[in-house]
Amino acid sequence: SYQRDIYSSFRSPKFSTKPAEWEAQARKKVPAANFGYVYGAASSGRTHAFNTAAFDRYRLRPKMLVNATRRDLSVELFGTKYPSPILCAPVGVQNIMHKDAEEATARACRETQIPMILSSAATRTIEQIAEANGPGERWYQLYWPRPKFDDITASLLQRAKYNGYKVLVVTLDTFNLAWRPTDLDSSYLPFLFGDGCQVGFSDPVFNRIYDEQQAEDTRSAGEKIREALDVISRPGTPFGALKLLMKASTIKKSRSWLDVLNSGTYREWHHLELLKQHWSGPIVLKGIQTVEDAHKAIEYGMSGIIVSNHGGRQLDGAIASLDALAEITADEQVKKSGLTILFDSGIRTGSDILKALALGAKAVLIGRPYMYGLAIGGEEGVKHVLKCLLADTDNMLGNLGKTCLGDLSRHDLQIQGQAK
Ligand code: FNR
User: Fold this and answer.
1) Rounded to two decimals, what is the model's pTM?
2) How is the chain split into domains, by residue range?
3) Ligand 1 pocket, 92 CB below 6 A?
């Protein structure tokens, strides 16, 4: 059974069961700049620290003499039943952690029956991940191109829909990439723009727009590169120089794809109507942190929100995501609306997951921990991390004296400094 299978991972002699150890091993496994990109946070790193520290202020209140030997971790999200409340958060450029990148994650998700949310900044295409994920569950995360690229948005959504991605996640907190000192100091850009972010090349609309743009500007850098290529591809030119120039044109195109995704603050709430025209399934807004914005999500007919601060990677000094969740789920209008609320940022253990669910999240997303698993052992590493988190959650649910997630509520929590 699912409950038995998730416990198989701790017998692995290769991997630790400690989250801190996953991080330590990943640090040793990949180049410092790559690890830094995953581990790093915005500016002072305080919000990242707030995220994890917030879990210490909410503590679980266990009940005794309850028969909780048979437990059920299943949840229903947007009409689909999932065996657990865990999803893999959208994480871009996974090739910096392991050569199998998003494909390893897609296979691990299929094996553990955990939905994978594919990032717009992935290093594998929508189609490649659909194939690797096979009968698994998958959602698509959109970095929403600016209005002049609406055709690209439409094309991405159409491809996602055609390839079996069920839910559209629109990330709202990254229109303006944050000041991230670790990356600035390690100049991580080459691997993002180099072999990394080429998935845009697979989109026919992006390619058409890109080619048209190149043709229009005959003296553009792209033309110069082609001219230079002409020159150095003559007999006698070193092969290395040729490769270097080809790489330069790839980097240019990758950069152009990231430009499309990194759209600046060109979007307003009423633009969500456009997404609804191109996507008939559920739409979930990722990066909501306030009751005010949760109300807007309801007003604009969204199916759900992901309370998230991007793992502390965007607005430094922002409140802990768990505190934002507590505020939003306590709101009467939100409660009445039936809005589905998901949560991420800072989860490292099973008890963290139970706390978020007790506060009213229906399910949670895991970010960095599975990336560390990917670095340590590719597909096996991701599977190990996910199974550990599942088993830890299942075990803690029993220790709390509960048999299913629907039984969790705020009564299961004591908030420090606030006696019940
Ligand atoms: C992210 N995150 C992210 N989110 C998103 O919507 N699209 C993306 O492409 C990415 N890329 C990305 C890369 C890396 C390296 C990290 C660590 C994170 C944010 C991610 O989905 C999630 O919100 C956070 O990772 C959750 O916080 P924890 O679990 O990492 O603390």
Assistant:
1) 0.93
2) 2-185+267-415, 199-261
3) yes
